[in-house]
Amino acid sequence: MIINNAGYDHCHDADFFIERPEGSGDNLLLLLKTDTIFTIDGKDIIVPSGSAFLYPKGRPQYYRCLKGQVFANDWVHFDFESDEEKEEFLSLAIPTEKAIPMNILFLSYCIKSIVYENYSANPCRKMSTDCFMKLIFIKLHESLIFQDEIIPDTQYEMLSTIRNKIYSKPFENRNVDFAAHEVRMSRSAFQRAYKKSFGVTFIEDLNNSRLSYAEMLLTTTDLPIDDIASLSGYKTYVHFNRKFKEKNGITPSEFKKRIKK
Questions:
Q1: What's 131-189 look like in SS3?
Q2: Do the beta carbons of residue 102 and residue 65 sit within 8 Å?
Q3: Residue 160 and residue 201: Cα distance in Å, rounded?
Q4: Most buried of 61, 198, 211, 253, CB within 10 angstroms?
Q5: What is the pLDDT of residue 151?
Q6: Are strands 27-32 and 71-79 parallel, antiparallel or unpaired?
Q7: Across the 261 residues of the chain, what is the mean pLDDT of every consecutive 10-residue run?
Q8: Do residues 103 and 31 lie in contact, with contact meaning Cβ atoms separated by under 8 Å?
């Protein structure tokens, strides 16, 4: 895999737009952290945040942020080194120029790692970036399998949108009442439907998304733990510490010490 360029957590102003009539000269993978308008064959479509989007080589690229909003994403421009490598990718049947809704938090971590490795002096950086790209493709393929196994219905799609939001932006201030209002359901009906659809309650899922995000920050940054608690959506360190220990059996401080050994 040839990584031509990559970017992590890039934010742009409300006037952001991309117009590449001939494409970018390579394949482009986008992880969307805000809703985005894509123009495909002259037709505008809105792709929600928490989606992956893949442009194949040679296709025009037109996309922009919604009016009055900022634009945020991760991205990788890449080429295949051999026909065998391309065939391996094609066998995963990942759709191009189509939204792939999923939990992009882990994929975002992979792209962050690709950016780091790609611009580092690590002797094995090429092997590392290849592994991260293959893992991204596998996870995209896996998400499509899960989607195929689920009978789509309007309620499930609405609940999935809520779930994508909490995993793509776990730090945002959310609660049951707000989420229920977003999908126009009563509090009790929303909680029953959410648990039936995903096997966990909304609050449990929200905590899981925040703790996963906190674990990523603990693993990849040197931020103080108080800051990590706040960045992960917790109003107090005490609450964060208790929830983290309930999930992992150790405190955030103990977790950080272990990964540094």
A1: HHHHHHHHHHHHHHHHHHHCCCCHHHHHHHHHHHHHHHCCCCCCCHHHHHHHCCCCHHH
A2: no
A3: 13
A4: 211
A5: 45
A6: antiparallel
A7: 90 88 95 91 90 94 88 93 91 92 84 89 90 93 70 70 84 90 90 88 91 88 90 91 91 84 56
A8: no
Give the model's pLDDT for residue 30: 95
SS3 per-residue string spanning the chain: CEEEEEEEEEEECCCCEEEECCCCCCEEEEEECCCEEEEECCEEEEECCCEEEEECCCCCEEEEECCCCCEEEEEEEEECCCHHHHHHHHCCCCCCCCCEECCCHHHHHHHHHHHHHHCCCCCCHHHHHHHHHHHHHHHHHHHHHHHHHCCCCHHHHHHHHHHHHHHHCCCCCCCHHHHHHHCCCCHHHHHHHHHHHHCCCHHHHHHHHHHHHHHHHHHHCCCCHHHHHHHCCCCCHHHHHHHHHHHHCCCHHHHHHHHCC
Q: What is the predicted pLDDT for the residue at 147?
A: 64
Check if the beta carbon of residue 26 is closer than 8 Å to that of residue 79.
yes
Alpha-carbon gap, residue 128 to 145, rounded angstroms: 26
Question: pLDDT at position 42, please?
Answer: 92
pLDDT at 2: 93
Amino acid at 187: R
CB atoms within 10 A of CB 75: 18
Q: Which residue, chain included where needed, has tokens 């209002």? A: 181
According to the model, what pLDDT value does residue 5 have? 93
Task: Take residue 3 and report the two structure tokens written for it.
Answer: 């990584």
